[in-house]
């Protein structure tokens, strides 16, 4: 199927052609016709599936048709709420690319920077607003934004909203929306709390489920290195001596870990930068811009901060630490191997992380090839999966996660508790002077 077959208007088709897009992705092919019909949509889709275009294109087309017949000041007709600044900026860039010939205006608001330039854009009038929850509510409280004219509402990355503690803010935003609207709901995972939230937003929605776990991993060459935790730094520097690794996105679990890895790489003469929630917006944007332009060879990121990082032809993703959630592994390695271009995903696994591999293998339906030929092998040996040895318990159940002691001292009978003297004297009066034992 081509975009022409989706009955898109000429200004959008022209923009897509300029961007080099001719065929829709599966989620675009399924979602765009449904949205053009005016239906609500619940999409289960992760980053890298073409999700942004799946809602941006129909919103632009629907607003374009109405804008041509309307007059007067611009009012905000479409609202897209997303959890991070990076995602908000990425979505804004997509609306710029696809809507360049429509005459529609959009802007993006997010925290961590001065609100003044954002307010100036809002006052000039916009059709589409992309926002993070906190800054949006701030501007609503200041009466600088009203949602009373919203016709199209998109909640993006709902599961990340939950992870980051934004669910209550999202509920406040929903209460301020008009009851009559078209709503779109996207989430990579659908835990019960997210399903319950979706039920409060959507009315008889169409459902699109695009989680290309197998397709994503098939495009990516995966490698697993067993290495002791203290040797991970040395192994990473060793691998990055290979000049064929043009760019690498490295994942750590914590912000502190991201900073430490970035610092270690810089000491080794490797151009690197870290990106996470504690960095200022200016610093995050500079790090991302330098990475995209290849001024910086390595970008070290936490999982939440990485949402919105979309780098073309990223050759390598490195899991400095194995994630404890298997879906996170797929999301991480999905940053490479995009648009039909092969990518390489490398994972470092220490002894404590072996247990996480079980769930990852179950999810991707395969084991990751192990690289044994490297200068920092795990000293205790490298099994593909941890082996849990059962300990003899002589037919009795042992408390979970508690190992029995090597030797048990002989048990002594507990000594009788001493009875207070006044009780002893009182008791003797009634027991014929016999002692209590």
Describe what you observe in this structure.
This protein has 437 residues and is of the alpha/beta class. It has 2 domains: 3-211, P-loop containing nucleotide triphosphate hydrolases (Rossmann fold, 3-Layer(aba) Sandwich), CATH 3.40.50.300; 214-364, 3-Layer(aba) Sandwich (Rossmann fold). 38% of the residues lie in helices and 14% in strands. It has helices spanning 10-19, 26-36, 51-67, 85-98, 116-124, 133-141, 158-163, 167-175, 192-201, 213-218, 232-239, 255-267, 281-292, 303-306, 326-333, 354-364, 421-431; strands at 41-45, 78-81, 106-109, 128-131, 152-155, 182-187, 206-210, 220-226, 248-251, 272-275, 298-301, 316-319, 343-349. Strands 3-4-2-5-6-1-7 form a 7-stranded parallel sheet, sandwiched between helices. A 6-stranded parallel sheet has the order 8-13-12-9-11-10. Helix 2 (26-36) packs parallel to helix 3 (51-67) and helix 6 crosses helix 8 (167-175). The longest helix is centred in the N-terminal third of the chain and has 17 residues, at 51-67. The chain is globular, with a radius of gyration of 29 Å. The model is unreliable at 386-418 (pLDDT under 50).
Descriptive labels:
437 residues, alpha/beta, Rossmann fold, 2 domains, 7-stranded parallel sheet, 6-stranded parallel sheet, 17 helices, 13 strands, 38% helix
Q: Kindly report the oligomeric state of this protein.
A: single chain
Class from secondary-structure proportions: alpha/beta
Distance between the termini: 92 Å
Number of helices: 17
Rg measurement, Å: 29 Å
Mean pLDDT: 83
Report the uncertain regions: 386-418
What's the CATH architecture name of the largest domain? 3-Layer(aba) Sandwich
Instruction: Please give the share of residues in helix.
Output: 25-40%
CATH topology of the largest domain: Rossmann fold
CATH superfamily of the largest domain: P-loop containing nucleotide triphosphate hydrolases
Number of structural units classed as domains: 2
Shape: globular
Count the E strands: 13
With strands numbered from the N-terminus, the spatial order across the biggest sheet is 3-4-2-5-6-1-7
Major sheet: 7 strands, parallel
Secondary-structure element order, N to C? HHEHEHEHEHEHHEHEHEHEHEHEHEHEHH
Assess the beta-strand content as a share of residues: 5-15%
What is the top-level CATH class of the largest domain?
Alpha Beta
């Amino acid at each position: 199927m081509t975009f022409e077959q989706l009955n898109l208007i000429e200004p959008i088709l022209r923009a897509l052609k300029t961007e080099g897009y001719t065929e829709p992705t599966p989620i675009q092919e399924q979602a765009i016709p449904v949205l053009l019909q005016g239906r609500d949509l619940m999409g289960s889709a992760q980053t890298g599936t073409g999700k942004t275009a799946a809602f941006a294109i129909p919103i632009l087309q629907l607003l374009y048709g109405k804008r041509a017949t309307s007059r007067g000041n611009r009012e905000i007709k479409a609202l897209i709420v997303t959890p991070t600044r990076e995602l908000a900026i990425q979505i804004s860039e997509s609306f710029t690319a696809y809507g360049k010939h429509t005459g529609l205006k959009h802007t993006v608001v997010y925290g961590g920077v001065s609100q003044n330039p954002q307010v100036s854009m809002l006052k000039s009038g916009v059709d589409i607003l992309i926002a993070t929850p906190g800054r949006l509510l701030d501007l609503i409280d200041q009466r600088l934004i009203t949602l009373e004219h919203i016709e199209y509402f998109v909640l993006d990355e709902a599961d990340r909203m939950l992870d980051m503690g934004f669910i209550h803010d999202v509920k406040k935003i929903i209460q301020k929306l008009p009851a009559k609207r078209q709503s779109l709901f996207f989430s990579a995972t659908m835990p019960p709390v997210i399903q319950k939230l979706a039920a409060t937003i959507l009315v008889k929605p169409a459902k699109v489920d695009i989680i290309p776990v197998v397709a994503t991993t098939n495009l990516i060459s995966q490698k697993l290195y067993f290495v002791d935790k203290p040797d991970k730094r040395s192994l990473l520097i060793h691998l990055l001596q290979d000049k064929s690794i043009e760019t690498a996105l490295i994942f750590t679990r914590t912000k502190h870990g991201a900073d430490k890895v970035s610092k270690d790489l810089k000491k080794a003469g490797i151009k690197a930068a870290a990106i996470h929630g504690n960095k200022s917006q200016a610093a995050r944007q500079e790090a991302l811009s330098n990475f995209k332009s290849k001024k910086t060879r390595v970008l070290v990121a936490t999982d939440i901060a990485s949402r919105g990082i979309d780098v073309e032809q990223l050759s390598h993703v490195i899991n400095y630490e194995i994630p404890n959630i298997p879906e996170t592994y797929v999301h991480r390695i999905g940053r490479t191997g995009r648009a039909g271009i092969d990518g390489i995903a490398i994972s470092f696994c220490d002894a404590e992380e072996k247990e996480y591999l079980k769930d990852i293998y179950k999810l991707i339906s395969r084991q990751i090839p192990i690289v044994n030929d490297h200068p920092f092998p795990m000293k205790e040996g490298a099994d593909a999966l941890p082996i849990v040895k059962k300990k003899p318990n002589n037919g009795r159940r042992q408390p979970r996660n508690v190992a029995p002691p090597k030797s048990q001292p002989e048990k002594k009978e507990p000594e009788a508790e001493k009875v207070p003297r006044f009780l002893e004297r009182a008791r003797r009066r009634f027991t014929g002077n016999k002692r209590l034992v």
